[in-house]
Specification:
heterodimer; A: Sodium/glucose cotransporter; Helix Hairpins; five-stranded mixed β-sheet; two-stranded antiparallel ribbon; 35 helices; elongated; B: 3 helices; about 75% helix
């Protein structure tokens, strides 16, 4: 049922399905209903890490060396745990600066350098194009194997097929078409390729399902589970010792883990899916565990398949690299074989598509563009080269794929191709120091990065790539064994006499040592310049700022229409105008013409262009239409310093505002108090005027009567005059007391303090008010101890208090039966004087107010005749003398006014 | 914000655990050419640690929403 034609048709149908999925996802994206905006799709797209090399090659490695293949997947598992910081930083920087490739990233970090971008691109192309060739070879090989179904093709001969009959060529061309269609739809490369990502995620599912299927078949259908496979393999003598020690040793294990950990971050295709195609930072969270889980699942059956293959094909020449496919074929499983073939196809095509897009972007932006820009300095450039740019990209895609295909045809079974997986990893690992150290250390400079990359690349070339050529027979093998010119110390795989390591570990050690060493050495030779310091801060501090602040770092003259014309030339009129219109909207100006030609606009234009032509070229182009004033290093550092201090400032500001709030509160309280005092004063004034008006009114009324009517009888006349005199007395008393109170309150009163015997004072007081008591028919009883009770006080003032209390008491005493008792006694450190009457008492609510001004007791049977100032004055006098005065009373049971003064014990 | 910093720190912790279990002399304790219930000990150990790391990472990032 599986004829040669069926296989080819299936392969092409599968590719057609990929086109359909990508087309569908792109259409959805155009309608803003993205299918790839999901953390699971993101995690699946990262699985483009698993190529045909994983799919077919892992089983081959397991058959040869047991668990030696695992570090390739354990390294990524470990580094995935750091993605929460490391990859997050890369994603955020790239979004802020519209970085679209790893070359652009490194160039951007070290001051938007065209040279660095170019070098990274060259390393990536040299390291990765052979890897693409390996994928094409896997496709070609799997087609050949499938076409011999139901026989197992054990020759592995591929190159024998004439080139025009080689399915791999047509697959390569189809992939070129796919990549051009879905990878270069429009120019702004930072607008992601949704269709491509959807297809890649789909391919990840296909290859996992296919591999798990053959795993289950090998483990549970051919045998009775894992243990059974292990047992049978052990009995047949094909069981490898499953230890790290026997699989190359621990040193090799660690270096492979490190290498894979670096590669999964630095491979251009991984950068493409993980950083450029990332649609939402939060998707990283799921990738942190789902990507390692994917790796775990796709590896769990590798060893059983390898053992089952060895059991099945014992004594034949079948290559372990093909077990995944030949095992189901050997057992007549047509459908499973087809599924496995499709799975292998998806592993290979996924890698080729993404890698080609990534490389073509780099080649266009970092190799071709700088060349063109250099040429256009001499010849004027075409007015619209957005189409030219697209053609460059498409050309790059075709060239890269054809290069890959030709390399595969040329290398065939050569060592240089078969072992390219790890060689390729080692090449891209050279980006790691400049990338990762540059994300955390501000001191890295352009010179350092350049030196590091060149040293690392040189060592890689010398210790890994050239030896692989020599082993393929393309170079004389002599220099491997004896060193160039017979210098043994320079033998490529035992450099400087370092022996005992395998070639990958050896290369990784020397290349990383020289790479990092040169990077640090040249970085520390001088301070970073303006551009380097600017970019360093934007990269290192990217997590500290919610929004990029690069805009503040430009000063000069620009014309908006020049900038928009520049963008139109690179992006096409429509896209550029749309982008500028949106920017104008963002800045809340009516139209593009009204955009201010300031730093923000220039920055916008530069990042817009960076998406299309790379940051370094974009900087050059924008500089060509603007007149930038050079900022000094100090200035830049100041600005950056300020920017990083913003948070500190805002904290300080918050504190200040809190203090301000507290002060405002205090002021408010003080103001309230002042208002209260003012209100009290107003009340006092109105009370005083009221109190003055009452006697004045009666004086005036009676005076007028006397004036108007001369015939008033003498008796009447005398009565009127008495009222006038008494009211006048009351007036003058009131005025005196107001003045007195004012004096005491403002501390202007004269105090003559001396030793005063309270007993004597009470007797004097009783005598001076005797007339008053007699008039009311009241008695006064003094209960005074015999010994002197001396306090420090102003005698006259204290007498004033006592007389006031006594006159109040007699005033409220019942007519004829009044009894007022004055009791003096020691009370702790004080002497206490109580004036007790048997009047009506004071209602409880009134007791609180009785010492306030103009609050007269209202319990009397007659209208009280006081001024309402006696008690307030008394309280102030006692308070001034260091004592206190209060009232105790129960209505109907009389009132007791008490004051205490501290004992003067002659101190 | 505070949550995500905590998650990041937890993930770094998981990374360190992984380093100790997979790339340190601790690995040699379980790196034996013997079997346990028919499974090679190293095979079980490596895949066990792998699964443990996946589960820990999943708990660290997905659990922090709650």
């Amino acid at each position: 049922m599986l004829g040669p034609k069926v296989i080819v048709v299936c392969a092409l149908l599968y590719l057609g399905l990929l086109f359909a999925i990508a087309y569908w996802a792109d259409r959805r994206a155009d309608r803003k209903r993205s299918v790839i905006s999901s953390p699971t799709v993101y995690a699946l797209s990262l699985a483009v890490y698993c190529t045909a090399w994983t799919y077919y090659g892992s089983v081959g490695r397991a058959a040869a060396s047991g668990i030696g293949f695992l570090p390739i997947y354990l390294g990524p598992t470990l580094i995935a745990a750091l993605w929460g910081t490391l990859l997050l930083k890369m994603v955020r920087v790239s979004k802020a600066q519209r970085i679209t490739s790893i070359a652009d990233f490194i160039a951007s970090r070290y001051g938007k350098s065209q040279v660095l971008g170019g070098i990274v691109t060259v390393i990536a192309v040299l390291g990765v194009v052979p890897y693409i060739a390996l994928q094409l070879k896997a496709i070609s090989q799997s087609v050949t194997i499938m076409q011999s179904y139901p026989l197992v093709n054990d020759t592995g001969v591929v190159a024998a097929i004439p080139i025009l009959q080689d399915t791999a060529l047509y697959v390569a061309l189809a992939l070129a078409a796919f990549t051009i269609l879905f990878g270069t739809r429009h120019l702004d490369a930072s607008e992601r390729h949704e269709g491509m990502v959807a297809a890649i995620a789909f391919e990840s599912i296909v290859k996992l399902v296919a591999f798990l299927s053959v795993g289950v078949f090998a483990t549970f259908v051919l045998h009775d589970g894992f243990v059974d496979v292990f047992d049978k393999a052990a009995a047949a003598g094909v069981m490898k010792t499953m230890t790290v020690a026997s699989a190359g040793g621990y040193g090799n294990w660690f270096s492979l883990t490190l290498l894979a950990a670096l590669a999964v971050m630095m491979l251009p295709r991984q950068f493409q899916v993980a950083v450029v195609e990332n649609s939402d930072e939060s998707h990283l969270r799921r990738a942190v565990w789902m990507f390692p889980l994917y790796l775990l699942l796709i590896n769990i059956f590798v060893i059983p398949i390898a053992l089952a293959g060895q059991l099945t094909f014992a004594g034949t020449a079948v290559d372990a690299d093909t077990f995944v496919l030949t095992l189901p074929i050997a057992h007549g499983q047509a459908l499973l074989s087809l599924l496995v073939f499709i799975g292998g196809l998806s592993a290979a095509t996924g890698m080729v598509i993404v890698e080609t897009i990534a490389l073509s972007t780099m080649v266009c932006n970092d190799l071709v563009m700088p060349g063109l820009l250099g040429r256009w300095k001499r010849i004027p450039p075409p007015s619209d080269f957005s189409q030219l740019l697209l053609r460059i990209r498409r050309g790059a895609i075709v060239v890269i794929l054809l290069l890959g295909y030709l390399y595969f045809r040329f290398a065939g079974e050569a060592y240089a191709l078969v072992s390219i997986g790890l060689i390729s990893f080692a090449a891209v690992a050279q980006f790691a120091p400049a990338m990762i150290i540059g994300l955390y250390w501000r001191g890295g400079t352009h010179a350092g990065a350049l030196a590091g990359l060149l040293c690392g690349f040189g060592i890689w070339l010398y210790t890994l790539l050239l030896p692989s050529f020599a082993k393929s027979g393309w170079l004389p093998a002599g220099f491997l064994e004896h060193g160039p010119f017979g210098i043994a110390l320079l033998r490529p795989q035992e450099l400087f006499g370092l022996s005992g390591l395998n070639e990958i570990t050896h290369c990784l050690f020397w290349s990383m040592t020289f790479n990092i060493g040169a990077y640090l050495y040249f970085s520390m030779r001088r301070q970073p310049n303006v551009n380097e310091a600017t970019q360093a801060t934007l990269f290192v501090d990217v997590l500290k700022h919610e929004r990029p602040f690069g805009v503040a770092l430009w000063r000069g003259k620009a014309e908006v229409h020049e900038l928009s014309r520049l963008a139109e030339r690179f992006l096409g009129v429509e896209r550029a105008r749309y982008a500028f219109a949106r920017f104008a909207d963002q800045r809340e100006v009516e139209s593009v013409d009204q955009l201010p030609a300031d730093a923000e606009t220039v920055h916008f234009a530069e990042t817009l262009l960076a998406g299309a032509i790379g940051s370094a070229s974009s900087r050059v182009m924008v500089a060509s239409v603007t007149a930038e004033e050079a900022l000094g290093l100090d200035e830049v550092l100041d600005i950056l310093d300020e920017a990083s201090q913003i948070r500190a400032y805002s904290r300080e500001l918050e504190q200040k505002s809190q203090e301000l709030e507290a002060a405002t509160g205090e002021l408010k309280a003080a103001n309230e108090q002042l208002k209260e005092i003012d209100r009290v004063k107003d009340d006092f004034m109105s009370s005083v005027t009221h109190e003055l008006r009452t006697p004045l009114a009666s004086i005036r009324a009676f005076s007028e009567i006397l004036q108007d009517d001369p015939r008033i009888e003498l008796e009447q006349r005398r009565h009127f005059l008495e009222i006038i005199v008494s009211e006048t007395k009351r007036l003058s008393r009131l005025v005196n007391q107001v003045l007195d109170l004012a004096k005491i309150e403002s501390d202007n009163a004269d105090w003559h303090t001396e030793d005063v015997d309270l007993g004597e004072l009470i007797r004097e007081g009783a005598e001076s008010t005797a007339q008053l008591f007699a008039e009311r028919g009241a008695r006064v009883i003094c209960e005074v101890p015999a010994e002197p009770c001396v306090v420090t006080a102003d005698h006259d003032r204290l007498m004033q208090v006592l007389v006031n209390l006594l006159s109040n008491a007699v005033k409220f005493a019942p007519q004829g039966g009044g009894v007022v008792r004055i009791i003096l006694q020691a009370h702790g450190r004080n002497f206490r004087v109580s004036v007790i009457d048997n009047g009506p008492g004071i209602a409880i609510p009134d007791q609180r107010h009785i010492f306030e001004r103009f609050r007269q007791g209202s319990g009397g049977t007659e209208k009280p005749v006081g001024t309402g100032l006696g008690l307030p004055i008394s309280r102030r006098i006692i308070g001034h003398l260091g004592g206190r005065i209060w009232v105790e009373s129960r209505p109907g049971k009389g009132a007791t006014f008490i004051f205490e003064l501290p004992v003067n014990d002659g101190a | 914000m505070q949550r995500s910093i905590l998650t990041r720190q937890r993930l770094i912790g998981i990374f360190l655990v992984g380093i100790v279990l997979l790339c340190s002399p601790a690995l040699t304790i379980f790196d034996r050419a013997t079997t346990w219930h028919g499974y090679p000990v190293s095979f079980l150990y490596l895949f066990g640690v792998w699964l443990l790391l996946v589960v820990l990472a999943a708990l660290a990032v997905e659990g922090s929403d709650r």
